[in-house]
UniProtKB/TrEMBL annotation, chains A, B:
Subcellular location: Peroxisome
Classification via Pfam families: FAD-oxidase_C, FAD_binding_4
Assigned protein family: Belongs to the FAD-binding oxidoreductase/transferase type 4 family.
Entry protein name: D-2-hydroxyglutarate dehydrogenase, mitochondrial
SUBUNIT field: Homodimer.
Length: 504, 504
């Protein structure tokens, strides 16, 4: 059987894209069994097919050994496991095009895979889909440091890109906990949001151009670096957030904003959620254009993460924590604004205690805790994670409701997220997966969110885990049009099957 | 024949959506004759059809009198004239749906029309398409002043919306010269950019949701007000910038940023274009996050506008002018940043002279000139206008080239636009339309722009005037996919025919 395993710890700030499994007990159940899915009528990979792939990619970039393929079949939260026999590692758009064209002809299903940091099973196969791992498409193509336009290949790791553009006085317009592993192409394909959407906007706004390969191998070249280009339909948006089901993103052009000259971080303890909301309103008003992040995490989010990963928490215990960050062009002005805000809100009682710092190592210590809340949830335990959008006034209501509903069937229920975007992450931690808890959670969470006109997936996407819940957020007419577009772009349905759209 | 006409002057800051034509000499040639277009095989409107429309809308909202219909057939720059016999004025999404469903069955072509402020003939018919004027769909539906989400009907005038949200401490995320007439639905359908894209981003980033009606009458409801919603394909983007050819936008949800507490405007004279660019770089660095607009206009842009519309120019004559605006949350901080910038750049010689003001009436006086550059071009003259994106370093090169190429065949050639977006507007003013000048301009301008990897239509769109030039900005694969999507969404091709996509 598969080799050994144990996932003891997570490297700080990184979600593991390729974990080496060393204990059989850590290998999750097959998705097809766990979720009772029926294989669709695709062809199966034959020796001839493997030979073809080797003729295109060479021997080295076609993995077929069970051991080599295993980790590509499993998502990092160990929720989903596919049964692929082949991993392909193209190095160019042309190779991707050749592979897809062949698979389309042969009716071989394909699962495109970036950094494999998703949490809805979108980036691992369900059955024996060929894994098209894009990690070797990882070159920066160009950077215009005046306009801020970066052009790069799909497999570039977000953090590496950020380090690169910082050398040119720019930053990437998105930042998320998985930055050390996630790929820009995966970010684009899933319309990733992250920590600073509040300030720098979403990817539909900041992606300037895309090159993508359709299921039949056609390369769609919309790789312009222009901020404005109203010539025909804005095709690039079809590939943003469609999770690899309409095409495989191979190159991305993206607008990088100027690196702030001054960065300051505030980390505050707050008495209750109502006061977190009031603090957000006050920050928006007092800090205005320099506010770059406003994150909230409840006590269990922070304390369990600090404990499990042995990270120091710079302030003592509070029911709620707020992480607030400013990006500005004048340190004195920013400090003055922040000081005024802090003085007022200590006086008003919205902030109970806290710390403000501009020291990179201290800021990093706080971000380390925040960004590891999700990864910490899987260390030695099983994690259910939800990612919802809600009206601000109802934002936190669901957490106490869930605690009551689940009682001692689980270890912890906690909530954290991006207040300014109305985006709450809900984590439910338990010793191991049980159907009982799964059924208490789903569709309950989606029903609650839908009743409040929220989104059942704010930024994590639909993937494999949520297609049958998508109707909680999208109506029949929209789903009908989505299906038509899928059929148009991928008539044989080979791209990332079992994902995003539910069966009719 | 048609009644009378003369368009003597333009009301300041407004492009005229419905000009009353009082002199036959002002009625432009029919587009079909001027541009030698062949009518496609649609049905023609019969008495029965008019009766059906009256049964849906009532007598008052179906215009068929020649006099009443005329102004809806002509675009405001008097370049295009259609031959429609019927204007329909729906008041609800249901009415739009009923009309389109009927027209689709009957193969009657439809031209959706917003404020009719476009400059590429996209919002007027070419032959006898039914004009679907959306001006009565003009209600605000809701405003959440914490999240900033505004929901409104398609026919709301941009300036009215801005006035409305300002009462709640917010501003619209876009602003353009035509704001007094243009509709939010038209803005969305054409992906309008405008003056503050630099700061508040584009509509793909700020539109939260859309309700649109497909050609067959199906209502596509993607009208969520959430900042983040990754559930399925992001359909709303299909309707942003597709110029009414894929569906008719009926409602819009849009994110409104906070109204700045402090607004300051700088209006500067600059010696040459190279220095305009240097000044932009300096402003980005010195003013950072408070920079909300950076516009450039050459001497002829400003002086001709000031002269024709009798608007005072607050500073004397310079080869180039820069209008720079800041939006901030602390007046003292902003003034300090701006003062430092001004002192440095007066000393460096980048700024020759100028004025800085926070007085609303004085700021308005400067914006009045800038926003009337385009309208002023049509007062008593014929205007060719281009709207291109270019790399910054090549931004202005084409203006002197055109002056040389056109010589005294035209009155004036001038350039102005949004430096930060690489977006240049080129105006060519002449006594009346001549084919000779038209042929000197097109495709020359597009060839020059294409050679620099620019866009032949940065924000004005493709409309009727540019489909046969679209290949200068989009390749075969992209055009092929656009055609497939058009066929999918509007199989009978009834929506805004002769626009956006070229004939195969």
């Amino acid at each position: 059987m598969f080799k050994v395993i144990k996932l003891y710890s997570i490297p700080a700030r990184h979600t593991p894209s390729l974990v080496k499994y060393r204990s059989a007990s850590q290998i999750p159940q097959l998705s097809s069994e766990k979720y009772k899915v029926k294989r669709k009528d695709f062809s199966t990979v034959q020796a001839n097919d493997v030979n073809y792939f080797k003729s295109v990619l060479g021997e080295d970039r076609v993995l077929t050994e069970e051991d080599d393929v295993l980790s590509f079949n499993i998502d990092w939260i160990r929720n989903c496991r596919g049964q692929s026999k082949v991993v392909l590692k193209p190095k160019s758009t042309e190779e991707v095009s050749q592979i897809l064209s062949y698979c389309n002809e042969r009716r071989l299903a394909v699962c495109p895979q970036g950094g494999n940091t998703g949490v809805v099973g979108g980036s691992v196969p369900v059955f024996d889909e060929i894994i098209l791992n894009l990690g070797l498409l990882n070159k920066v193509i160009s950077l215009d440091d005046i306009s801020g336009a970066l052009v790069c290949e799909t497999g570039c790791v977000l953090e590496k890109l950020d380090n690169y553009v910082r050398q040119h006085g720019l930053i990437m317009p998105l930042d998320l906990g998985a930055k050390g592993s996630c790929h820009i192409g995966g970010n684009v394909s899933t319309n990733a949001g992250g920590l600073r959407l509040l300030r720098y906007g979403n990817l539909h706004g900041s992606v300037l151009g895309i090159e993508a390969v359709k299921a039949d191998g056609t390369v769609i070249d919309c790789l312009k670096t222009l901020k404005k280009d109203n010539t025909g339909y804005h095709l690039k948006h079809l590939f943003i957030g469609s999770e690899g089901t309409l095409g495989v993103v191979t190159k991305v052009a993206i607008h990088c904003p100027a690196m702030p000259k001054a960065v300051t971080l505030g980390y505050f303890g707050v008495e209750n959620f109502e006061k977190v909301l009031q603090l957000y309103k006050s920050a928006k008003s007092s800090l205005g254009e320099i506010l770059s992040a406003f994150e909230m995490a409840d006590f269990d989010s922070i304390s369990s993460t600090a404990r499990i990963l042995n990270l120091p928490n710079p302030i003592s215990d509070f029911p709620f924590y707020v992480i607030l960050e400013t990006h500005g062009s004048d340190e004195d002005h920013d400090k003055e604004k922040l000081h005024r805000f802090l003085t007022n809100e200590m006086k008003s009682g919205l902030i109970l205690d806290g710390t403000i710092t501009s020291e990179p190592s201290k800021m990093q210590a706080v971000w380390n805790i925040r960004e590891n809340i999700a990864p910490a949830g899987i260390v030695g335990t099983y994690l259910f994670t939800f990612d919802v959008s809600l009206p601000m006034k109802n934002y936190y209501e669901i957490i106490p409701k869930l605690r009551q509903r689940l009682g001692n069937k689980v270890n912890l229920v906690f909530g954290f997220g991006h207040i300014g975007d109305g985006n709450l992450h809900i984590n439910v931690v338990m010793p191991e997966y049980t159907r009982e808890v799964a059924e208490l959670l789903e569709p309950y969470v989606f029903e609650e969110v839908s009743a409040l006109q929220g989104s059942i997936s704010a930024e994590h996407g639909v993937g494999f885990r949520k297609p049958h819940y998508i109707h909680y957020s999208k109506d029949r007419s929209a789903l009908g049009l989505m299906r038509q577009i899928k059929t148009l772009m991928d008539p044989n349905g080979i791209l990332n099957p079992y994902k995003v759209l539910p069966d009719e």
